[in-house]
Each structure stands twice: as C-alpha cells, then as structure tokens.
Specification:
Helix content is about 50%, strand content about 20%. By secondary structure, it is of the alpha+beta class. The protein folds into two domains: about 30 residues; about 70 residues, Alpha-Beta Plaits, CATH 3.30.70. It has a four-stranded antiparallel beta sheet. A hairpin with a 4-residue loop joins strand 2 and strand 3. It is elongated.
C-alpha cells in the first residue's frame, strides 16, 4: 500500500476512535453516570420489631442513603429499596448502616436496548 494511503487510513482510524470516545463521554454525561460507576439495586429487609431501629440507624449513620431509599413499612413490607450508583458491591454496602449490611441484597443491574435484545435472540 502506498505511504499516502496509509496516512489517510491512519487519520480515518484516529477520527473513528476519537468519535467513539466522544460518544461514550456524551452518553455517560446524559445518564449522569461517572466513569467506572455501575448501577445497583439495594433491597434491605428488616422485621416489624426492627423497623424503628433500622430507620433510626439509617437516619443517623447513612442520611444520604435514607434520601435514596423507598420503604414498604407502611404497607407491611418492612424493606427498604433503592437504586444507587457505585464502583462495586462493597462500596454500596458501605453506604448502609452497619446493622443492615449483612441482610441487604445488592444486585448489579443494567438496561437493554431493543437492538441488544435483538442481538441476544440472534445468538440463541
């Protein structure tokens, strides 16, 4: 291949890589998600007897998490639910009061686009 053609191909490749990084950065900015962060669903159960202590602990030890949590306590479902962004499961656990960490279920979650679903079907 001629040197001039190699130069053109190199420039095109560089443009494609740059555009890819730009699009990824724009997508991250749109979603509000920082680089290296993932989304986790937190399910933190407690019993009716533990309810006020769990709420007090959340209020005093983890006020930021309290603001993110939705509770089913008033409906008889003594569980807190939240969707949070963090680097890993351990970081999510550390957002919770100490007494809630072992009982909490933390699940890394994500979304699928229609195109991704189509590709999954094609692989089957």
């Amino acid at each position: 291949m001629r040197p001039k053609m190699l130069g053109v191909l190199a420039v095109l490749a560089l443009m494609m890589v740059t555009q890819s990084f730009t699009l990824n950065a724009q997508e991250a900015k749109k979603s509000g998600k920082k680089k290296g962060m993932a989304t986790f669903m937190v399910i933190a159960p407690h019993t009716q007897e533990e309810c006020l202590k769990a709420l007090d602990d959340m209020s005093s030890e983890s006020p930021k998490m309290l603001a993110k949590m939705s509770f089913g306590c008033m409906s008889g479902d003594h569980t807190g639910y939240a969707s949070v962004e963090a680097e890993n499961v351990e970081a999510v656990k550390n957002m919770l009061p100490a007494a809630e960490r072992e009982k909490a279920k933390i699940i890394k979650v994500g979304k699928f686009s229609p195109e991704e679903i189509k590709k999954l079907h094609e692989k089957m």
